[in-house]
Amino acid sequence: MTRPYTIAAIVTTFNEEKNIARCLASLRWCDSILVVDSFSTDRTPEIAQSTPGVVLVQRPYLGAAAQKNWAMDQVNADWILHFDADEECTPALQAEIESLLASGPRWHAFTIRRRVFFMGRVIRFSGWQRDRVVRLVRKGMARYANLRVHERMRTVGPAPVLRNPMLHHMIDSFDEYVKRVSGYGYLGAAQGWRDGKSSGFLQVFFRPLWRFFRMYVLQLGFLDGMHGLVFCMVQSYATYVKWAILWAWRVNARRGRQPALPPFDEDPATWAFSPPSSAS
User: Could you tell me the pTM of the whole model?
Assistant: First the structure.
């Protein structure tokens, strides 16, 4: 299909040798692919470099939002498509995006649904059946907000939802995912500390319980069987870790002990968002 716009795919990675080949293979229809690696210690760089059309660069990791904003500044294309290494573009999604670009998009950004897989099985409930993220953007018309974890895209104008989803192979090895969840909790606590938030009984006790109840009962996670139970509990655990760490940091601060925070990207250029004045 002939399209008047170029499109570049951006994939950020760290130790993704199990997923990166599948992700890159699904994006080979793009005009270019930029992989921004955070100095992986496994075969991720080797696999990326051996994939035709892929440019690999390495940069210290200061959060997903910072990494992706930096990456957007490195590509020269009309449109940018963001993917994580554990995600996969389906032929149907590819065809929809190519058709969209061929017809001349009305908007500057688009949201893509994610079909989430847990241990090889699709999560049909728990609220994650409505998981969607802004991932297709016109260059210069979108920027990630300054958050250390759970990045959020700011766009010029609305970001309509595309019909076809991407595949998100979120959890394949449960023991590895639990470690990752703990890391998310630590980063979430760091963001909370930076934002001046406090934590106490309500946050540590009720927030995890409420998240489990909402996902497992109100959002019908129990209909996914044992997969649903374990999935909802690990999400609740992530909430507990975040608020428990923040509580411990506040306690220690009163004892004169400051937390060891992860590095933040303090470069204003990373977060600057000045779309063209002609954007509508």
Answer: 0.93
Alpha carbon distance 154, 219 (integer Å): 27
The beta-strand segments (E) located in 127-278 are 132-138, 142-144, 153-155, 166-171
A 10 A CB-CB count for 51 gives: 17
Is a pLDDT exceeding 80 seen at residue 36? yes
Could you tell me if 265 and 62 are in contact, meaning their C-beta atoms sit under 8 angstroms apart? yes
**Residue-wise pLDDT tens digits, 238-260:** 999 999 999 999 999 999 999 99
Residue at 242: amino acid letter: K
Instruction: Dig out the tokens for 122 from the structure.
Output: 């699709």
Distances (CA, A) of 251 to 172, 189, 202, 247, 255: 36, 13, 16, 6, 7
Q: In sequence order, what are the residues at sequence separation of 6 or more whose Cβ sits closer than 8 angstroms to the Cβ of residue 42?
A: 15, 16, 17
Taking residues 118-127, what's their average pLDDT? 96
Nearest-angstrom CA–CA distance, 159 and 94: 18
Amino acid at 260: A
Please return the burial class of 251, using the count of CB atoms within 10 Å of its CB with bins 0-12, 13-18 and 19+.
exposed
Q: Which helix (H) or strand (E) holds 249?
A: helix 225-254
Residue 120 burial (CB < 10 Å; 0-12/13-18/19+)?
exposed
Cα separation, 59 vs 11, whole angstroms: 13
Tokens of 171: 């959890």
List beta partners, residue 109.
137
